[in-house]
Amino acid sequence: MQTARDLKGYKKEIQGALENDFLRSAMDKFAVAYPASRARAFAGIDVPSLVAEIAAIKDANLARLDELLAEFTRHAEACGVKVHLAEDAEAANRIIAEIAHAGGAHRIVKSKSMTAEETLLNHHLEAEGLEVVETDLGEWIIQLRHEGPSHMVMPAIHLSRHQVADLFSEVTRTRQDAEIERLVKVSRRELRARYVEADMGITGANFAIADTGAIGITTNEGNARLVATLPRIHVALMGIDKLVSTLTDALRINRALPRNATGQKITSYVTWITGPVACAAGPEGRKEMHIVFLDNGRRALARDPIFAQVLRCVRCGACANVCPVYRMVGGHQYGHIYIGAIGLILTYFFHGRDKARNLVQNCINCGACKAVCAAGIDLPHLIKEIHTRIQDETGHPLQSSMLAKVLANRGLFHRLLRAARVAQKPITGGTPYLRHLPMIFSKEQNFRVLPAIAEVPFRDRWPVLRPRVERPRWRVALFSGCVQDFVHPEQLEAGLKSMEGLGVRVEFPMGQSCCGLPAQMMGEKEAARRVAIQNMAAMATERCDYIVTLCASCASHLTHGYPKLFTEGTEEKRLAQAFSAKVISFSRFLSEVVKIGPEHFGPAVGVKTTYHAPCHLCRGLEEHEAPKALIKAAGMDFAPAAEEETCCGFGGTYSSKFPTISAQILELKLADIERTGAAVLVTECPGCVMQLRGGAKRAGMPLKVLHLAEALAEARAPADK
Amino acid sequence: MPSRETLVTEFTARAEEVSAVVSTVASIDAALDHVVDLCAGKEACQWLLAGCEAPLSAPAENLCATAAAAKVLAAPGLAEDLRDRLAQRCRANGIHLVEGSLRQRLGGIDIGLTFADAGIAETGTLVIDSSDEETRLATMISEVHVAILPAGKIVATADDLAVPLGQALARPGNFTAFITGASRTADIERVLAIGVHGPLALHILILED
Ligand code: SF4
Ligand code: SF4
């Protein structure tokens, strides 16, 4: 549970997590194991279609929540269930306590429910003098430790067997060995006694099916079945977003839920309950059953044009499983109660701005969560939207509004960059390395060597470099982005060189500026919008076939970010769509349009080469193959890295805001690359080059880090020119 | 529509993947023999590291002590002739057969025997109408759950059951269970452990007809 009051306090807690060796190794093992087991579970299933189907099912149901609730209530009450609607967390807790008091219940057993975590139900019931025991093993462990879950599906993933053994030794008042199999059996036998004594059971639910009034619960341990069976009163608590129209909807969702959550094709138990079931301990041989729906802002959220999709979430937890930041800091630092990408967002809606304001800044925007989400939620985009909202509501930090002002004014921005080049001279001592652009400077940045601002930016070199192509086959406008223009112009030069003699006419419109992604990342949406309008005008879309960029982040932002900046139906929106349709990454352009092949390169050199997939290329643009195809076509000996598509930790301004996390992500990345035994690392984004080259240099690795354009330019045959 | 053979093969493979022990039996008598043999060969309340030797707190120890000394086989809801055939076999093997009042035996029973209403090949899942409380408990508190599944009741995916399942869900007091493998957890260090709050093992007898 993240509760730090300010960013400084938050960073301090993060540091603690980064230094927790057990947590780090547990998270690493999980991050490596998860993708493989997920892929096995989904084998033979068309995942994108299934995700799209689930998104459509949820959207349709969310649009008629009130109707579904009425329908569900009618059916459930006809069976004898009492259905309650709780406006907020406090109301839910009060309703449940009242049920217990009215039914003369004192001892309560509970199975896992994130909704109950959201309302802090246990605290409330205990304060009312009721005894509550969690029966899910992980939940029981964290209950005994008086802490919140660190993962939505595996709540105790941050703890070691030794910590659990100590805890169980206390509970049983006998020394327990730290042997997992035995510890599990201790919980089995200890908790069995609790079910027997309990007079009320509280479960969550994964589905509430409107057309029958039935609920569906998925579990692995079998505890929810006992909780719903043994005590005479059953209370099921769930968010109102769990309502679906029919069983078919639920079965669809359940195809993805366990596969995405734990890589299981199905959980051990899926239980479908309609109304009070037979129960020897209940009045007249039946249960007393209550279903409590929690609103807590959900009905309003369901009507929000931007954020309604948040409620599609099926709580599989996968967005945490793949998140590079979660992997470094663990769940207690990556959510208030709900964890992971969705947790950053839900914290804002369920627990308020103050709990969310630090968290939403800690997203590197790698897109891994979006790519894995069972419900197709555009999580990184929504995280940024909330960041923006919070800044709009509480005022923009000085640094952020300064950056926004500078970026929105191209002339000023470029003058500052030129001035920075002069200022850096005494610092770089003649080497091409410096800290970093106009960001904050701190000693924590030292984990990698950062390049200097170039002597002569690309835009000043352009008049000389401009290639003359008489009868062009393709007319291309080059979008450089600010990093390549001012820091790595040699990458653009290499790009030109690798396209020589292929019939590509290149223009470099001078009015272009930064793509605006840094402003967006800082929550400065207005500035991002202004920069976008300038760039769209500058690039003169109508005069080119393609807008090629060698920066994956720019490419992804120009393609997907620009249209999202403008409101539906406006002229800008139309312009942005036309503009983004022409944007193409360098590798895709060469591979799929120009169709460059081995015949365009000199004799194969066979240097062992590996590849790092920039987040904004592989997930942002769904380009997984083109760069590798080019590496192979150019005659390099390609050696794939196990975690090729894992983020390098750069994330633009992220690495200056959370340098210690960025450094650790980088460290793992470099270790993965080292294991390939490659001498050359190729990637397609100047940001990744900056991070990886600087990191390798700082670590003293003999690794040559190249932008794809540099690697290709080197390999182009002289005869071809 | 996949052939029955394909469905049985697929079902078996998927169920075994999640630790179920699957056997094929030629007749209902063979199934009963199988269950009784299993129970007779099993140590009472000791199977599969049930944790009996580990020390516990007093209330938990007390509950454990209520478990019967003799081996107990629970088989609720059997048709009369079946029950008689089973009872005969149990007597011959010194097994205590119970059909109800399982709430008196929450300390644990050795084997719970049930009939499955359907099987789902894609996931190796049993579908069991557990609306009757005794059936429910037999599948929950037994150390070994044995389910007899007629081969003809295996379908390819859960979607193929949407209609009958929808009807079941429309019945007040319905409790339908999808059961796939034995109960499991990976809550401590993500290490898989079989047998948490439910059965320690699941045996499936596919009945050819
Ligand atoms: S975009 Fe990347 S860093 Fe941000 S929440 Fe998603 S997975 Fe985590
Ligand atoms: S947001 Fe998506 S990935 Fe994350 S828990 Fe929800 S459904 Fe799963």
What does this protein look like?
The complex is a heterodimer of chains A (721) and B (209). By secondary structure, chain A is an alpha/beta fold. In chain A, helix 34 (686-698) links the parallel strand 17 and strand 18 (704-707). Chain A is elongated. With 209 residues, chain B is an alpha/beta fold. Chain B has one domain (4-207): NagB/RpiA/CoA transferase-like (Rossmann fold, 3-Layer(aba) Sandwich). Chain B is built from six helices and twelve strands. In chain B, the strands form three sheets. Chain B has a six-stranded parallel sheet, with helices on both faces. Chain B has a four-stranded mixed sheet with strand order 8-5-6-9, with helices on both faces. Classes of the chains: A alpha/beta (721), B alpha/beta (209). Chains A and B meet through helix 2, helix 8, helix 9, helix 10 and helix 11 of A and helix 3, helix 5, helix 6, strand 9 and strand 10 of B. The structure holds iron/sulfur cluster (SF4) (2 copies). One iron/sulfur cluster is lined by residues 313-319, 340-342, 372-375, 377, 379 of chain A. The site of one iron/sulfur cluster has 16 residues of chain A, from helix 14 and helix 16.
Q: How many individual helices of chain B?
A: 6
Q: What's the shape of chain B? A: globular
DSSP E strands of chain A, number: 18
Structural class of chain A: alpha/beta
Query: What is the CATH superfamily classification of chain B?
Result: NagB/RpiA/CoA transferase-like
Main beta-sheet annotation of chain B: 6 strands, parallel
- Distance N terminus to C terminus of chain B? 19 Å
Uncertain spans of chain A? 426-442
Small-molecule components bound: iron/sulfur cluster
Q: What is the structural class of chain B?
A: alpha/beta
What's the helical proportion of residues of chain A?
A: 40-55%
Widest sheet: strand ordering of chain B: 1-12-7-4-2-3
Number of strands of chain B: 12
Number of separate domains of chain B: 1
Q: Mean pLDDT of chain B, as a whole number?
A: 89
Radius of gyration of chain B: 17 Å
Query: What percentage of residues of chain B falls in helices of 4 or more residues?
Result: 25-40%
